[in-house]
Design goal:
It is a single chain. With 135 residues, the protein is mainly alpha-helical. The chain is 69% helix and 0% strand. Helix 2 crosses helix 6. It starts with a helix and ends with a helix.
Length: 135
C-alpha cells in the first residue's frame, strides 16, 4: 500500500514539473515586453537611462521605432559598457547576469523570446539544485 502511494506521488510530481516547464516556455514571445525587460535590454546593449531619458519622459506607450535603437547591441559597445552602465546607475545589480545575457543574445539573436528564454533556461537549474540540497 505504501509503495503504491509513493509511486503515484512521484508520478504526480513529474507531471506537475513537466507542466510547469511547458507553461514556462509556451508563448514566451507573445507577452507584453514590460518596463524591467526594457531596462534589461538597454543594460545589455551598454546604454544608460540618461541615453534614452527623452523617450521615457513621454507618457503612454513608447513606440517600437523610437526604442529599438537602444535595444540592439552596438558593436562599439562592449561588456565593459554594460558593466559601466550598471555601476553608474544600478550598483546593486549583479553584473554576471547581464554579461551572460549579453553573451546569450550575441550568440543567438536579439529578440524578445531569446532574452526571456535565457531566464527560463537558467530557472530550470533550480530543479537539480533543490534535489541536491535535499539529498
Amino acid at each position: 500500500m505504501q509503495k503504491s502511494y509513493f509511486h503515484w506521488l512521484r508520478v504526480l510530481i513529474v507531471i506537475v514539473l513537466i507542466l510547469g516547464v511547458y507553461f514556462r516556455f509556451i508563448n514566451i514571445d507573445r507577452k507584453v515586453y514590460w518596463h524591467d525587460e526594457i531596462i534589461t535590454s538597454v543594460r545589455i546593449a551598454g546604454y544608460t537611462k540618461e541615453n534614452f531619458s527623452d523617450i521615457l519622459k513621454k507618457s503612454g506607450v513608447v513606440e517600437q521605432e523610437n526604442l529599438q535603437q537602444y535595444l540592439n547591441i552596438d558593436s562599439n559597445k562592449t561588456f565593459i559598457s554594460t558593466i559601466n552602465s550598471l555601476a553608474t546607475e544600478n550598483p546593486e545589480q549583479v553584473p554576471i547576469y547581464f554579461i551572460l545575457l549579453r553573451w546569450w543574445v550575441k550568440l543567438f539573436d536579439n529578440s524578445i523570446e531569446v532574452i526571456r528564454s535565457f531566464s527560463a533556461v537558467v530557472s530550470l537549474l533550480v530543479f537539480p539544485c533543490v534535489y541536491w540540497l535535499c539529498r
